[in-house]
Specification:
The protein has two domains: about 90 residues, Beta Barrel (Elongation Factor Tu (Ef-tu), domain 3); about 70 residues, SH3 type barrels (Roll), CATH 2.30.30.240. Helices cover about 15% and strands about 45% of the residues. The chain has four helices and 13 strands. It has a seven-stranded mixed sheet, with no helix packed on it. A six-stranded antiparallel beta barrel has the order 1-2-5-4-3-6. A hairpin with a 4-residue loop joins strand 1 and strand 2. It is elongated, with a radius of gyration of 19 Å. About 20% of the residues are buried.
Length: about 170
């Protein structure tokens, strides 16, 4: 069965020399593309998936630069293309789904700002993921990454903020 696609935005303009696309879409499209690391486009010639070199917010729009190797002719032909995401990709970038590359090494703090430790491993589970944390006292604990435990995730500051975590923790 084919994965359902949803439109994220439209390529408004292109800069072939820089391999850049300006995308008009809803708030959050920059974060989604940054987490995916590539862009899926519906073009007149069919669907294309291209790897991204960089993603940034530019006013209300998102600007992406494609990796070297994508030709100027290819970029020039992308104006007006629809930016798509599959339902599986949507689940991968959902707020509750944490990318191990983003989480491991993050500092862990409580809601008052006190340091708890650092994420040393992320274990994927069917119901929810688990994080192993090396506490500042040297002990390691494993916590579930569920709403009562995780108050916020700040990927830019590389901080995992925990709410009520102690009843859910297991020493490792």
């Amino acid at each position: 069965m084919a994965d359902r696609r949803e439109e994220l935005g439209v390529v408004q303009s292109v800069q072939p020399g820089r391999r850049a696309l300006r995308i008009q879409g809803p708030a959050g499209v920059t974060n989604v593309l940054e987490r995916l690391g590539w862009i899926r486009l519906a073009t007149s010639g069919g669907e294309r998936r291209l790897k991204l070199e960089s993603v940034r917010q530019a006013g209300d729009d998102c600007v992406v630069e494609l990796v070297p190797g994508v030709t100027r002719e290819t970029v020039a032909g992308l104006r007006g293309s629809r930016v798509l995401i599959t339902s599986e990709e949507r689940r991968e970038v959902a707020p509750g789904h944490l990318n191990p590359r983003e989480v491991v090494g993050m500092g862990v703090f409580d809601e008052s700002g006190a340091e708890i430790g650092e994420v040393t491993a992320l274990y994927e589970g069917k119901a929810h993921d688990m994080a192993e944390i090396r506490r500042v006292n040297g002990e390691s604990v494993v916590i579930p990454l569920i709403p009562p435990v995780v108050a916020a995730v700040d990927t830019q500051a590389r901080r995992l903020i925990l709410g009520d975590w102690t009843p859910y923790s297991v020493e490792s």
